[in-house]
Amino acid sequence: MANKKPQNEEQNPEVTRREFLNLAWLASLGFFLIDIGAVTVLFAFPRFKEGEFGGRFVLGKVSEVFPEPDSDPAENPKGKFWLSRLEDGSIIALYKVCTHLGCLYNWQGQEHKFICPCHGSQFQLDGTYIQGPAPRSLDRFVVRLLDENGNEVAVTDEEGLALVPPDEDLQVVVETGQLIRGRPSGEKYPTSEF
Ligand code: FES
């Protein structure tokens, strides 16, 4: 027995094709709008919460969170940074990850330098490269200093140079989403010891 096609399709195959194309077009438009919506939401809201790595860390006053000049740096494990205070009183937030292959380096108080346990790269208190296979000095995060009304008074510059706090009572904010790459090994900072 021969198969019979439905009467409608035989009589008007164009309608079916047009309907299909319309549906496909509507589906594409729908996906496009969903994409636009998702991107808008991502930009409208910060991706990382405050106090979460990738976001901003609101700490206490400069005098409370940074150590004495040229003394052992303070570690912030959650934010993955070290807070260093240099001899001239300037401050830096150093990303805790070694610039060689990404190990977590440590501060060695007796030697007064950071040493990476993986392949022995060494860095000064301000993150300047000393020796080892690391290709550059330690990376830095942007530090902001805010007054009591939340106004920004000082901020790390584009080069990531150590920031001299104009006032020890300013509030410290470390932006772990804003990383400044360390200078190539052999290139010094104004704060480098040698
Ligand atoms: S990962 Fe630090 S020296 Fe290799």
Topology, pairings included?
Elements: H1 7-11, H2 13-44, E1 56-61, H3 62-65, E2 74-76, E3 81-85, E4 91-95, E5 106-108, E6 113-115, E7 122-123, E8 129-131, E9 140-146, E10 152-155, E11 171-180
Antiparallel strand pairs: 1-11, 2-3, 3-4, 4-9, 5-6, 6-7, 7-8, 9-10, 9-11
The protein binds FE2/S2 (inorganic) cluster.
FE2/S2 (inorganic) cluster binds at residues 98, 100-103, 116, 118-121, 132-134.
Largest beta-sheet details: 7 strands, antiparallel
Bound molecules: FE2/S2 (inorganic) cluster
**What quaternary form is this?**
single chain
Number of domains: 2
Shape: elongated
What name goes with the CATH superfamily of the largest domain? Answer: Rieske [2Fe-2S] iron-sulphur domain
Rg from alpha-carbon coordinates: 28 Å
Overall pLDDT confidence: 88
Kindly report the CATH topology of the largest domain. Answer: Rieske Iron-sulfur Protein
Give the structural class.
Answer: alpha+beta
**Portion of residues within helices:** 10-25%
Highest-level CATH class of the largest domain: Mainly Beta
Number of DSSP strand runs: 11
Order of helices and strands: HHEHEEEEEEEEEE
Contiguous runs where pLDDT drops below 50 for at least 5 residues: none
Number of helices: 3
Gap from first CA to last CA: 96 Å
Walk me through what this model shows:
There is one protein chain. With 194 residues, this protein is an alpha+beta fold. The chain has two domains: 11-44; 56-180, Rieske Iron-sulfur Protein (3-layer Sandwich), CATH 2.102.10. Helix content is 21%, strand content 26%. It contains three helices and eleven strands. The chain has helices spanning 7-11, 13-44, 62-65; strands at residues 56-61, 74-76, 81-85, 91-95, 106-108, 113-115, 122-123, 129-131, 140-146, 152-155, 171-180. The strands form two sheets. Strands 1, 2, 3, 4, 9, 10 and 11 form a seven-stranded antiparallel β-sheet that branches. Strand 2 and strand 3 form a beta hairpin. The longest helix has 32 residues, at 13-44. It is elongated, with a radius of gyration of 28 Å. The protein starts with 6 loop residues before the first helix and ends in a 14-residue tail after the last strand. The mean pLDDT is 88. Bound molecules: FE2/S2 (inorganic) cluster.
